[in-house]
User: Fold these one by one.
Assistant:
Number 1:
Amino acid sequence: MNGTLTTGDISGATALGSIAATEKTVFDHIHSWLVTVDHKRLGLMYIIYALVFFVVAGIEASLIRIQLATPNNHFLSPQVFNQLFTMHGTTMVFLVGMPMIFGFANYLVPLMIGARDLAFPRLNAFGFWLSVFGGLLLYFSFIGGEGMTGAGSAPDVGWFAYAPLTGKAFSKGHSTDYWILGIMIGGFGSIATAANIITTILSMRCRGMTLAKMPLLAWLNLIMCGMVLIAVSPLTAAQIMLLLDRFAGSHFFDTQAGGSATLWMHFFWIFGHPEVFAQGHFRLPGHGRCDAGDRLRQPERLGPPHVHYRNDINRKYLFCHFDHDGRYSNGHQNLQLARNHVGWEAAL
């Protein structure tokens, strides 16, 4: 009242100032998520990223199904149908499947093995943003690309991008280049994240947790990441070879200059079968969740825990190996039959 400051006034003003200083704006929250290296936040961002592209892929699939609903339907032109087919398949495999499983692995693996974070937090963030940039670059092709016929925009060579359709003679413009670069950049991010998770599981388990005591879901994420390393690396090498064909004058897949179109098929399906048709994305981790649920519901039927645990690991590993080999050989037998049926031998 007399104009003098008391100790209570000073302490109250200090408290109000500290509260005002700690209040974060919306931009501060967004910035904290953009620059985070926390495995939980990155896991959630992976899952959100996958769900966004899942919606996009669903819209593309709906347009495809409308076109196929009735005979002689002209809802989509052939060029647009090829673009949607290519983008839907590519999105589901590369922008939904892998980010989704990496999101769960990012969030859960450190918690299951007692680690504070992944082994390389900055590499984890780098891998995520590489995947994001690859997906955005792929969809930027709708604006900056040009299709196989010169009238389209997005890639239209199929999500498998068989040679010789990806050659300069058959794929004019840059739509195929967007596909190659987008998937290749995303592949670098997947390789980085898979290597990070493997390193974390092998070297950062808590005291007393041996591999034989590790949760089954962590085991299956370890196998899944190993499959990603084995599968994505050949695809990345093939995409580099395809870029050299298109821009540097090499002839890896140019059949008229002595190259081999089947070489691309071998490279691609070395990736494709373990990654898509086998358990690379969902089946191995899904088995871990189902087995954990079975053990909680019916522990007496499953026998001693250590026997069940080892049998599960051996069964999943052998299942992974034989399922991959069987599908690989069957897939190429079917491919050979299809090629003979439609007369591709003349083109090859």
Number 2:
Amino acid sequence: MTARIAALLVSATLAIPVSLRAQETAWDSVSRVLGTPDDFAAGYHRYNLPRRDLTLRVGDVAVASTLGLGAWAGFSRTPDDATLMGDLVFTSSEVRPVLAELVRDGIEVTAVNNHLIGEVPIAGQKGPVPYQVTWKDAVSVGAAGVLYVLPGVLALPHGPPSCAPCDPAALPEVDRWAVRPVSATGDAASDVVLAGVAGFTAFEGLHGLPVQRWQGNFAVFANTASWTAASTAWLKVLVRRKRPVLYTTDAIRASSDPESQQSLPSLHASLAFAAATSYFVIAKRQRLPHRTRNALLLYAGAVGVAALRVAAGKHFPTDVLAGAALGSGIGWVVPTIHPTQP
């Protein structure tokens, strides 16, 4: 072995019976903790954990982490009576501390092997770093909350609408067909679907994660939602677009309500798309399990919210499109620029 060898990669085969809570989501919880999907086959749950923080070279050839650095953990039997086996991959400098930690946790190490000769591991891409959580997050969310409620406190916008009822012919053709009386059922349905989108976002983006990660993700979700709501509220006041009800026979009764002039953008649509987009960005960054499926479900829910707002007579199509664009933009910006832990 020459001096060019920077470190040895070794593998520890582990075997220990473990006890897991008997519940339907037990294996999903394991996926969340390990940050990798469950590769299930023939009653065996396997979780692949390649060392992506190292780049391996054998001579002049770069070796993919899934080949030369393929750690894994596997479970057999039921969550009530499971057995764990697996391989860990680490460098020569990590042998002593890793083995000491395994022994301290009561995990049996059945073998330590050197599988690669002449390799040069080099520090490479790091795993997901949790978002920072500081007092600035509380200030940010609080400030956005104040901005959101301010138009209502000040009863903005001031003054009655310029017409009640208004002429539908003045509307863009794409919006004209959406003029209809308000449907209380459709309005309530959009609330329920929005609550579902928000709840699913929180569950899939927080549940089962290590404390630092879920706290950081929660801070990002809170900032995203609060600033989406505040931005939407003030755009409504500035644009002062009339809602569809002002183009119907109910216009005179509705004209006394300041919200009748707050149609664009749709708050429901902006919040739904902000939730879906922020989850997509975070899940992709942190390689959360089932992220593609969950993102598709969230965007489908967001589209459903937007469609229900139009069907309920609360918004025009262009209102929900504007809300979707605004929410998607904020949902991408906040998790992208939010500071991570050093």
Number 3:
Amino acid sequence: MHGETAEATRNDAGRATDAAVNEIGRLVRALALYRPQLVLCVSERTLLPVLVSARDGSLLVARLRDAAGQMLAALGVADAAVASEQEAMMDAVIGKTVSRQVLGSMNDFVRMLDSYHGAGTLLDVSLRLAETPCGPLRMNSPREETIRAFALPA
């Protein structure tokens, strides 16, 4: 995969932290060299993928927060829980990740993007990627793990 990989986390002081700050855990992003330019964000805990446009990097965190909220809502997460997740993402810090499981899953998702070219909105493609069985999840999908994290009926 081409691009840059970083980890987005925050704590109450706005500093980077190793502890998960929300239900789906830390979000990891990779700037994938893909047309159009996209940012692939993946939950460290559930491997839930969220795609956002890479244009205007100064709005990346806000765009990620909105897209993650749309993704969770599309999976049936309650509005209050979605709002809580988005609140936890208000202050993001970008740094390097060391999770090989996340990076491997991100590489798999990036390889799948070509097959979903023109398959709808970024949300639609993210939802399709979320159905992918992932080895680090014991071949469960990120969708299933996210539903489990929020204790939703499958």
Number 4:
Amino acid sequence: MGGSPCRPPGEAVRIVAAWKGSSGPRSSHHLKADARQRREASSLADQQTGRLAQGSVMRSAPQRRSGPNWTWAQRDMPLLHALIRPIHTLLANICDTPTRENLMRSEYLGKTILALSLATAMAVVAGCQSSKVEMAPKAEKAQAMKVAKAETAPKAEKAQAKMEMAPVEHRKYTVGSKWIWREKGTDDVTYTVVSVDDGKTTLQGTNGCKSTFISGTFNQFTSWENCRGGTGSQSFNRNNNIFPLEVGKKDSVNVAGTNSKGNTWSTRMTCEVMGTDNVTVPAGTFDTYHVVCKDKWSRRDYHYAPELGTSVISARSPIGSSKSKPYRTELVKYERAG
């Protein structure tokens, strides 16, 4: 007797009845046969019960219709997806059982969808209006900036025209003329012209510094004593021709020098009129020519005010790995003698 699941449903009942109706002593052979029959009957009953249960479930669970794919809405229009996705799910459930009540629900949901669509359209229009309102102040601000720029343009042109100064000749210094210079972190120092001789001008400072430079030049000092801790002298192959000052003018000279420490040097110094600047110093505000003189080790900046006939700013800065100490002095007062 086999255990095939293809037996008709009554076969399991017949086997059980035959087993229950048997009587009398049973041999081991019959006992084994009875046990095998009981197992087969139990297996057939379980299989039949499972098929019945599965059929019941399949009959009771209606097949759902697959709805549209809302992936594009979720990606591109999240608001629309959030509004319509729950309604679509509800409609799908209602349409599975088209009773009168569910049809009424479907009509109600249709009206709800229409109302939501109108509300969404109104929200979009309101958002556009709000964007226009927000953009209006920005447009007004941009227009105001444009007007302000147009108003300031003539002022800038006027200032530029003011800085286009005519060429300036050197004004000779006279004995007794005085400068008061201020350097950050130090006391003010007064320099007085003590001699003007043989094309050279000599200054004496209240700080003990005495220096001589070639008249009518920039940065052509021929000697100095106790000036910033040093004493020395130097010579030039010729005087530079930087005067009369005008923007773009340039001149170079050769320099050879020595100091009290036994150091010697030779270099080429170039001075150039870089431009014009309006500067403010303790002595006042002046239109100036900006002159830069460079050699191998340092750069010196001078702001020469034609109004005074002298520089109002003198500064030095090292170049590269030079050990030259930087400084910046500004004019506090200038008194021209004679």
